[in-house]
Amino acid sequence: MENKKQILEQKLKDFEANENGLFDHGIFGLPFNIEESELVLIPVPWEATVSYGKGSSQGPKAILDASQQIDLYDPLYPDGWKRGIAMQDIPTDMYYENMQICKKVEEYLSGYFDKNINKELQTEINNDCRDLNTRVKEVTDSLLDEGKIVGLVGGDHSTPLGFLESLAEKYKDFGILHIDAHNDLRPAYEGLTYSHASIFYNALKIKNISKLVQVGIRDISDIENNIVKEEKGKIVVFSDYEIKKDMFKGISWSKKCDEIIKKLPNNVYISFDIDGLVPYLSPHTGTPVPGGFSIDEMVFLFEKILESKRKIIGFDLCEVSPKENDTWDGNVGARILYKLCLLTLKSHK
For the domain that residue 250 is a member of, what is the CATH number? Predict the structure, then answer.
């Protein structure tokens, strides 16, 4: 243990923090490996069930590439990065498996829209997606057993389910703060059980998840609205419309944040779909919707979670979809990811 501490101290001494982006380091230009880091990011390059714009399987790489240009000083937690942040290698086998399953989905949907459903192919795709969730859970289990704090970088929004299942074995009670333009509460979408549009319908089946607080929602289906009502308070929706209406009437964002946080238990998981932001910040995300928030508004909300003495036990960032020869989406994603890492580390201080 002492030798490990000495190695880390020497690594920090040798690291040029003001020129981190000039060297071949890891996420955010940091020099840490997985073993040395308190917080470890799991990249999941997966978008098998995406239903509109594609590209989120490229999100982890776009974020990793853009992260090299981030200056490390941040008033949120100036020395937080020194505790160690690392990202696992992006699994190329998963990326190529995703491509193959996307082809299956394309074939399946060609019949689905003509009401000629290939049940065998439907089952096969659902099993493939369940296998992905199992793989994510196993990776998360291993990291949590090592005492790591974990974050996930998607991929589409179906990717964190296995992560949530793993956390539920560690925490007896936790709530999800869900930032998104969509509820993602459909029992299935296009006949696919593990669709990105069904992530929180599936998550609410997990024992120990006591609350789902959704913020910024501005696209909701009838069935999702009914599910919210049926859950009788387990799901709380702060729609974009209602939030903005209150703010137009003079209620401050700070007071709205207090209302949101009061609905959360002590342990909080943050699930951040990039389309929760205003569309110009994530123009190529799969299903953009007018409305949304600025990064500053979201960071303020997360800071207030820490001020309330709640603990951020993990997070995901999903649906970052880069466009070829355009680094903007990856750049925004990397900066949100850095804020999430620092605030999560700070909550474990």
Answer: 3.40.800.10
